[in-house]
């Protein structure tokens, strides 16, 4: 079974409701407008931060941004990024290019750090998923929305 990471845009009202009531797992899992980063989430985090799990914000937003809400969904609870945090993440992503990020790929170092799915296809994964992430987060920021991030 693969550990995947997904993002879903959410209004401030929805984010506040999730903070009070938790997250509806079935709604998240069936969200058609969500962005699924598949197994490339860890590669993206690594090239953004140079780290396996931590790093400065907003670069580390995928793995440690926002705040946890609700129950454990199997790999921890979902996290929500406020519209302000989403805008900061969008600005960070907007300053990155595939070429800049590709230079940070070091498969042996990534394997030592146990970066999930680190292999020879890492550059292809970056080229495929980074533009989607950049566009999705920019769209959320432009709409004044936040993000829900979860692993499944």
Determine the CATH superfamily. Answer: YfbM-like super family
Give the domain tally: 1
What is the CA-based Rg, rounded? 15 Å
Main β-sheet, in a few words? Answer: 5 strands, antiparallel
Secondary-structure-based class equals: alpha+beta
The CATH topology: Hypothetical protein yfbM fold
The oligomeric status of these chains comes to single chain
Shape: globular
Q: How much of the residues is beta strand, in percent?
A: 5-15%
Helix content: 40-55%
Structure, described:
The chain has 152 residues and is of the alpha+beta class. The chain has one domain (5-142): Hypothetical protein yfbM fold, CATH 3.40.1760. It has 8 helices and 5 strands. It has helices at residues 12-21, 25-29, 41-49, 61-64, 83-94, 98-102, 107-112, 122-142; strands at residues 5-10, 35-36, 67-69, 78-81, 146-151. Strands 2-1-5-4-3 form a 5-stranded antiparallel β-sheet, sandwiched between helices. The radius of gyration is 15 Å and the shape is globular. The mean pLDDT is 94.
């Amino acid at each position: 079974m693969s550990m995947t990471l997904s993002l879903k845009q959410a209004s401030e009202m929805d984010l506040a409701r999730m903070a009070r009531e938790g997250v509806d797992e079935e709604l998240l899992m069936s969200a058609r407008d969500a962005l699924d980063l598949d197994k490339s989430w860890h590669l993206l985090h690594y090239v953004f931060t140079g780290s396996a799990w931590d790093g400065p914000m907003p670069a580390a937003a995928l793995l440690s941004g926002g705040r946890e809400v609700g129950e454990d969904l199997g790999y921890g609870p979902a996290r929500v990024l406020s519209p302000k945090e989403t805008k900061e993440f969008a600005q960070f992503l907007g300053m990155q290019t595939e070429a800049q990020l590709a230079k940070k790929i070091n498969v042996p170092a990534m394997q030592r750090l146990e970066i999930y799915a680190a292999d020879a296809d890492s550059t292809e994964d970056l080229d495929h998923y980074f533009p989607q992430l950049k566009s999705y987060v920019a769209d959320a920021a432009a709409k004044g929305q936040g993000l829900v991030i979860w692993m499944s």
